[in-house]
Amino acid sequence: MTDTVYILNGPNLNLLGVREPHLYGSTTLAQVEQLCARVAGELGLGCDFRQTNHEGVMVDWVQEARVQAAAVLINPAGLSFRSIPLLDALKTLEQPVAEVHVTNIHRREELYQKSLVSLAATGVICGFGVFGYEMALRALAQRLPQRQAFPAAATV
């Protein structure tokens, strides 16, 4: 296994910065990728950044991550709320999984408030805009066995 984090982005995130900027902001997905590459580099991690609009492709990537990735950061977007296949794939991972949402899904319409993906995630970050990606990368780095600055069960 490598020290590469798979950063997987779901449907319509290719329109980040264009689609509903009042909700998602003006930062593009290309800019998020640059942010993730910079932060991963600072942490000594590789970064494999991907986006798809297709559920099956996302499931394939999660299955690939089982043997190729040290951790997974996922913004499943609309797949969060209805994708049993994605949940089942994520449940097979032994690596840490961070779920990220640009908006605070708990303050959104009811259909966006309950993420199935959260059932398989190590942790969830939502509502901090694209900064959530950076927070998730830093949290995942702490969860990697050779990098733990403190035990995963430590309390603050």
Give your account of this protein's structure.
The protein is α/β, with parallel strands linked by helices and 156 residues long. The chain has a single domain, classed as Rossmann fold, CATH 3.40.50.9100. It contains five helices and five strands. The chain has a five-stranded parallel β-sheet, sandwiched between helices. The radius of gyration is 15 Å and the shape is globular.
The tally of strands reads 5
CATH topology: Rossmann fold
The global form is globular
Main sheet: strand order: 2-1-3-4-5
Number of helices: 5
SS class: alpha/beta
Question: Which tags fit this structure?
Answer:
156 residues; alpha/beta; Rossmann fold; 5 helices; globular
What is this structure's SSE topology?
Elements: E1 4-9, H1 21-24, H2 29-42, E2 46-51, H3 55-68, E3 71-75, H4 84-90, E4 97-101, E5 123-126, H5 131-143
Parallel strand pairs: 1-2, 1-3, 3-4, 4-5
Q: TL;DR?
A:
With 156 residues, the chain is of the alpha/beta class. The protein has helices spanning 21-24, 29-42, 55-68, 84-90, 131-143; strands at residues 4-9, 46-51, 71-75, 97-101, 123-126.
